[in-house]
Recover the amino acids of this structure.
């Protein structure tokens, strides 16, 4: 009997965990994050720093940018990737997801089907990044942490992300079917 | 009883589901539709929808991260 037939392998490693389990674990981890870092869980703010570091590595400078003009932001940028808690956390998420999928023998590099797909991904990604910064967060920082902090803005964000998803879905069906 | 294949490799949700829904409409009762997917959320929502419609569904893992959802049109 190989490991793939073992019922614990199937339940814990291969198959997806129940939604309720995921919800409870996410809540526990965001409480830990808030308690240890003093800030609610966020993902997109970290990506802005990654962008700045890449830009500086390529020779650019963000010194005159308003977004990075505060004391805290400057210190974070100067501290670098390894000293930044949020960056390590995001890295952990990426590595954790990779480990989970490798253990479940589900790793696959998916092929790209068409140029339309690339264009849509680039455009969608740019819109998401832009929206996440002017909204001061993404579905995690603005929606999840916002609502968890009893912030009305979290709910407003939720309503509009829903409306945006409706528009996006209609476009998807129209352009990719 | 004919077999049809739907290649949805590389497509993100909900494209495989909508394509399968449209294709299934064209099939006759007793025909089989094999949907090839590599997206794990489609691996869940496609069989769920097909079973809710009353069809017979089987999911086979053909390779790492690749599944074939075999749907037999029942009504």
């Amino acid at each position: 009997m190989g490991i793939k037939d073992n019922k614990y392998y199937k339940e814990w490693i291969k198959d997806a965990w129940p939604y309720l389990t995921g919800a409870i674990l996410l809540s526990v981890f965001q409480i830990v994050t808030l308690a240890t870092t003093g800030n609610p869980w966020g993902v997109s703010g970290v990506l802005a720093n990654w962008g700045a570091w890449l830009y500086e590595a390529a020779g650019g400078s963000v010194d005159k940018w308003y977004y990075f003009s505060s004391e805290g932001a400057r210190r974070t940028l100067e501290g670098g990737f390894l000293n930044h808690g949020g960056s390590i956390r995001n890295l952990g998420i990426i590595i954790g997801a990779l480990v989970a999928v490798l253990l479940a023998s589900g790793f696959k590099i998916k092929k790209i089907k068409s140029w339309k797909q690339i264009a849509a991904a680039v455009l969608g990604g740019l819109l998401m990044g832009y929206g996440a910064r002017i909204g001061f967060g993404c579905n995690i920082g603005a929606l999840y942490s916002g609502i968890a902090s009893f912030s009305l803005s979290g709910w407003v964000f939720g309503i509009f992300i829903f409306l945006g998803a409706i528009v996006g879905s209609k476009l998807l069906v129209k352009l990719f079917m | 009883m004919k077999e049809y294949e739907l290649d949805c490799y590389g497509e993100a949700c909900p494209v495989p589901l909508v394509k399968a829904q449209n294709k299934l409409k064209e099939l006759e009762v007793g025909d089989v539709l094999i949907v090839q997917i590599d997206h794990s959320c489609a691996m869940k929502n496609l069989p769920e929808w097909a079973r809710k419609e009353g069809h017979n569904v089987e999911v086979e893992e053909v390779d790492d991260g690749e599944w074939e959802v075999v749907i037999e049109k029942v009504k």
In short: The interface with chain A takes residues 9-11, 14-15, 18-19, 22, 38-40, 44, 63-66 of chain B (CB under 8 Å). DSSP finds two helices and four strands in chain B. The CA atoms of residues 28 and 73 of chain B lie 7 Å apart. The first strand of chain B starts at residue 3 and ends at 7.
